[in-house]
């Protein structure tokens, strides 16, 4: 088993990879798209296959091409610093003789470093396709659990803002953004689980013996990340319900205030209507203190209503 990693370390030169594969030596390599296109004819991979896997997509769904001897697939990548921003695609070309990881988008040195770290974690006698794949994906998502925990802390902060009634106008936009991020993360991990399912079927007989345990370890890791994402989505629903309850409470408070004001003015409206009839038999119309009397009566009614509402804790 030998390996090569473009721009980082070369166990073998790029031009030697097809020859090594034809000799039946299992080869593991990480290549840029340009480098892969150089060696593709030598390992009988058609350009149409490469074009299909390189096809732009807005969906986080794995694309697989299976034959009797090989599995070809691609994955959408994300940038954890900006989850809504796509970070290219990674292709995998897998047969009994080789496992090639290819950057199908723009050259990203970070992914190459991930491959380097994965290989460096293997002893020379443990350099198997299954283990390198497991370590590559494990290293790739190594910081994802911490990012999910950060999102959970962000939810706690948002919940505290609701409890403290310090909700700004952009609060709902923040909720929508977090919902979309969790949707992307869910589909991001789902595509890896689909890939592991294909490998575990092992229709091509690529994996044998105890090394199958690495496929199971990959599945468990992605399943945990996906499950954590689902739990965060449930927390998101609860947070949105709490926000809606806050809005309902705020609306009820406003409506209660309007109700109190309306209730206070109802007896005042009765007084206005009563004395507005201007019957000649009304003694207050010719009384010297009639005007002051009505003002005093109105003030007493308003103060009495306010006292009653405060006693009932309505205001």
Chain-wise SSE layout:
Layout: E1 2-5, E2 9-10, H1 17-22, E3 27-32, H2 33-39, H3 47-54, E4 63-66, E5 70-79, E6 82-95, E7 98-103, H4 109-120, H5 129-140, H6 144-163, H7 171-201, H8 212-275, H9 290-311
Parallel strand pairs: 1-3, 3-7
Antiparallel strand pairs: 1-2, 4-5, 5-6, 6-7
Helix pairs in contact: 4-5, 5-8, 6-8, 7-8, 8-9
Task: Describe the protein in words.
Mean pLDDT is 82; it is low at 6-10. The protein has a seven-stranded mixed β-sheet with strand order 2-1-3-7-6-5-4, sandwiched between helices. 23% of the residues are buried. The protein is an alpha/beta fold. The radius of gyration is 35 Å and the shape is rod-shaped. The chain has helices spanning 17-22, 33-39, 47-54, 109-120, 129-140, 144-163, 171-201, 212-275, 290-311; strands at residues 2-5, 9-10, 27-32, 63-66, 70-79, 82-95, 98-103. Helix 6 (144-163) packs parallel to helix 8 (212-275). The protein is built from nine helices and seven strands. Helices cover 58% and strands 15% of the residues. The chain starts with a strand and ends with a helix. The protein folds into two domains: 2-248, no CATH class; 252-311, Up-down Bundle (Methane Monooxygenase Hydroxylase, Chain G, domain 1).
Strand arrangement, major sheet = 2-1-3-7-6-5-4
Question: How much is the radius of gyration in Å?
Answer: 35 Å
Write down the overall geometry.
Answer: rod-shaped
Low-confidence stretches: 6-10
Q: Helical element count?
A: 9
Q: How many strands?
A: 7
Q: What percentage of the residues does DSSP assign to strands (E)?
A: 5-15%
Mean pLDDT: 82
The termini sit apart by: 79 Å
How much helix is in the residues?
55-70%
Can you tell me the number of structural domains?
Answer: 2
N-to-C order of helices and strands? EEHEHHEEEEHHHHHH
Overall structural class, as computed from helix and strand content, comes to alpha/beta
């Amino acid at each position: 088993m030998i390996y090569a990693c473009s721009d980082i370390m070369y166990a073998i030169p790029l031009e030697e990879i097809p020859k090594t594969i034809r000799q039946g030596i299992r080869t593991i390599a990480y290549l840029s798209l340009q480098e892969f296109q150089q060696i593709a004819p030598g390992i009988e991979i058609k350009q149409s296959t490469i074009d299909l896997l390189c096809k732009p997509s807005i969906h986080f769904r794995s694309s697989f091409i299976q034959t009797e001897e090989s599995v070809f697939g691609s994955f959408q990548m994300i940038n954890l610093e900006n989850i809504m921003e796509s970070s290219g695609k990674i292709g995998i070309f897998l047969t009994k003789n080789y496992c090639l990881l290819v950057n199908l988008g723009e050259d990203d040195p970070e992914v190459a470093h991930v491959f380097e770290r994965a290989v460096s974690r293997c002893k020379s006698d443990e350099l198997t396709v299954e283990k390198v794949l497991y370590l590559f994906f494990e290293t790739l998502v190594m910081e994802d659990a911490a990012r999910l925990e950060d999102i959970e802390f962000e939810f706690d902060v948002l919940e505290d803002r609701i409890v403290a009634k310090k909700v700004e106008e952009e609060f709902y936009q923040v909720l929508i953004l977090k919902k979309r991020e969790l949707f992307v993360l869910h589909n991001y991990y789902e595509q890896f689980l689909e890939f592991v399912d294909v490998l575990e079927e092992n229709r091509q007989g690529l994996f044998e013996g105890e090394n199958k345990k690495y496929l199971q370890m990959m599945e468990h890791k992605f399943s945990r990340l996906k499950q954590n994402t689902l739990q965060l989505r449930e927390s998101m629903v609860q947070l949105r319900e709490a926000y809606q309850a806050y809005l309902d409470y705020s609306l009820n408070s406003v409506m209660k205030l309007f109700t109190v004001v309306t209730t206070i003015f109802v007896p005042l409206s009765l007084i206005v209507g009563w004395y507005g009839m201007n019957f000649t038999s009304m003694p207050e119309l010719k009384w010297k203190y009639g005007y002051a009397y009505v003002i005093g009566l109105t003030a007493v009614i308003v103060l009495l209503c306010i006292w009653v509402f405060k006693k009932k804790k309505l205001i």
